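Continuing the series of single-chain predictions for the mutant panel. This is the parent chain; the variants come on the following pages.
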Amino acid sequence: MAKRRKPISVDEPLCHADHPRPISRRDFIRQGFISGAATILTGGVFSLFANPREAYAAVSSDLDALAADSGCQLGGLSGAAKVPFICFDLAGGANLSGSNVLVGKGDGQMDFLSTAGYNKLGLPGDMIPGISDAGATLLNPSDGDFTNSSLGLRFHADSAMLFGILGKAGSALTQGAIDGAVIPARSDNDTGNNPHNPLYGIARAGAEGGVVTLIGSRNTESGGNSASPAALVDPEIRPTKVDRPSDVTGMVDVGNLTAILSDPADVTAVMESIARISHKKMALSGVSPGINVTRDEVVKDLVRCGYLKSADIANRFAGVSVDPAADPNIRGGIFTAAEFDNDREFQKTASVMKMVIDGHAGAGCITMGGYDYHTSNRFAGENRDLRAGRCIGACLAYAALMAKPLMIYVFSDGSVASNGTVDNSQPQGNNELGGRGKGVWTGDNSSTASSFFLVYNPAGAVTPYNNGLPLERHRQIGRFSADASVVTSSSPAANNVNLLVNTVILNYMALNGDEGQFTTLFPGHGLGNIDNLISFGNIS
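Parent structure:
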């Protein structure tokens, strides 16, 4: 008789006999030894007020002039806002293909793979897309053939990730307002050295926040688990890391002034005075401007700008509650009070989505650890996919509530595969899902990897880009072979992670109507004919 294994909690670290002992930060993240408690990314809580520009007047005119003289930008966004962008970095090598998002052959998602191919993707022969699912008990509504088109982009009807997305966002999304595309693309397993993270490129494409440009849940150069392409890194906009709500409030902190001065206008006046005094002290220090700029002048200019920005932030945010738990749209709305209070991943997601969607950050990255789930069962991966789906769905639901467009990009370092053994286990412990009769994940397999993105447009339909390709070709960039392996020649992104990032950035720019600027902003992009790599048109 086989020994019964202790159920693996959705928060429990994953220990693999075929993996070395974790020694690096990324090892700990992908195997779940570092949990959501250490990755709370807050930030979007600043918009509990309706419109900070209207709520308070601008800083005094003399400070505006001083800011202009110092090259210091005040007042948040300086131009037209771009589509908010959030990426999910599922560290460890999650299954995204087949059992979650459908991936097909050359004619798109519905150009089905072989039975053996779906078996490798964890789907037994009686659950493969394209056959009748009459009588089957599935997690999600079905189109009748084990597929689901609720999001435009096709998912498997028993996808745990889709179950999570629809559970949070299903009632908020109108038909046609959301769509997406899957990109079959190989990447190395279990490593943070894949340059998957697109944040710097998204910023170069124009994404800009009213408080910070980029945010990321890890204190890394990329802001996430995976690296950023070296050619895109801009140290001046390194993602700001926040790992607790108090760090978020610290971004707009004016010290104890709000406790002493009850009127926000008084707080602003004090901060303005500090900026003026600082400027006068520096002017009296004897440093004269000249042709050669000294290090001392540079430092003083940066300090001056810091005081000016503090005055501006005080003007816009003093006296305003910035506690994410105080937003009824989030705690008690999208998330129940119990969910929000007891799950750090939900707190992290709630904070990021609010900061980005409300325009206080241009783009954000949410790292979720523990996705190296080839544990010779299925339920460990199902429950982690479910929670990722709920976090993705929460972002979509909040965008719908705020009537803001949104692009969500989901990626992972590598992927997994199944040997066909079926897991019929039932839910146990704090796992909401059992094995559901699907194939166990038995090992890493980079050839089954893919990434995908979703696009939400509150103003109307998400329409295909006008490049003459059939609709299904817009929802899949590249292809799998019949046996469920990435065809590495099917797109520039298929075998080059740097070009995968460029493909995502290109599609982001097309959503903003900026695809014509892509070759100028990203010379030597390596994508060739970019028109054939764009999925959807302008929604900005």
